[in-house]
Design brief:
By secondary structure, the protein is of the alpha+beta class. Helices cover 33% and strands 15% of the residues. This is Serine hydrolase domain-containing protein. InterPro entries: Beta-lactam-related, Beta-lactam/transpept-like, Diverse_Enzym_Activities.
């Protein structure tokens, strides 16, 4: 079946939305594609988080981490002893699960892009763990790129490899994603929360891998149970429309029984399991809900 993107392209053009590349896969085949110019490699922003989540699942499957692993188990040197801070409010007591579903307990999450650019402290793990929590972890969702960076650091401490190096033989190479660039911290830790540079066709392969519950060309790259777990709602969240459907573990829940990896400025990897379909989009556009609205109006009915 060939799917038409004419309506989608017409709508984004009419609304002045700067969508750059679109891929639709269904039943494991390319159903439609469109590029404004060429499908070049671009920064995927927070879609990077969903790749880091795969590394966490692999480390758990290998017995090197668990959902209950706490930061102080791998970073005891950074635990701040302060009699005025309750133990439950110390970042060292945070568990991997708290970080994965972004319930770490910060009102103002550390290590935002702006803060990373200006922070004098080069050891970002030390910095993160020096900041007391504002509330008990596990209770409330607050979107935090800092949480994902700490996941990356934790994986590196547990496996002895950066997340990029760890994922290269386990995920990138099997998916045919070669010579990956991924930004690092000043001390060489894979950024994890952002900074991954791939193209949209490569992103669509990641979506197909997710749709196939971690299976690729007959090999189980990541346990299916992990894919199932991280792509279902783990915590309620507040937001508008497709940002209010709940959050999994480094994945967003969508309307229309879908889930997605999601990056700033309109990077999307949408998985519609009931339609056996994947929609991958790269953009340079702040109006992200408007892009999704057109996906639901123009692409979804054809699936």
């Amino acid at each position: 079946m060939t799917l038409s993107l004419t309506g989608f392209v017409d709508r984004v053009t009419e609304q002045g939305l700067n969508v750059l590349s679109t891929r639709v896969l269904q039943h494991g085949e390319l159903a439609a594609q469109w590029d404004l110019t060429i499908d070049e490699r671009r920064v995927q922003h927070s879609i990077s988080k969903s790749f880091t989540c795969m590394a966490a699942g692999l480390a758990i499957a290998e017995g090197k981490l668990s959902l209950h692993t706490k930061l102080n188990e791998f970073f005891p040197q950074y635990v701040v002893e302060d009699a005025n801070i309750e133990p439950a409010m110390c970042p060292g007591d945070l568990a991997l699960y708290d970080l994965l579903r972004m319930t770490s307990g910060h009102d103002n999450p550390p290590l935002t892009a702006a803060e990373r650019a200006s922070l004098e402290e080069k050891d970002w793990v030390k910095y993160y763990m020096s900041l007391p929590l504002d509330r008990a972890p596990g209770e409330l969702f607050t979107y935090s790129s800092g949480d994902t960076f700490i996941i990356s650091a934790l994986i590196q401490a547990a496996t002895g490899q950066t997340v990029q190096d760890y994922l290269t033989p386990h995920l990138f190479e099997p998916l045919g994603i070669h010579d990956v660039y991924w930004e690092t911290s000043p001390l060489g830790i894979t950024l994890g929360c952002a900074g991954l540079v791939i193209n949209n066709e490569e992103l669509s392969r990641f979506g197909q891998f997710l749709l196939q519950r971690g299976m690729w060309e007959g090999k189980q790259l990541v346990p299916a149970e992990w894919i199932d777990f991280v792509t279902r709602k783990q915590i309620d969240n507040q937001g508008s429309v497709d940002w209010s459907q709940g959050y999994g573990c480094q994945f967003w829940m969508c309307t229309h029984d879908a889930y997605r990896a999601d990056g700033a400025y309109g990077q999307f990897c949408i998985v519609l399991s009931d339609k056996d379909a994947v929609i991958a989009i790269n953009s340079q556009e702040e109006h992200m809900q408007e892009i999704l609205d057109i996906v639901w109006a123009e692409i979804l009915p054809q699936l």
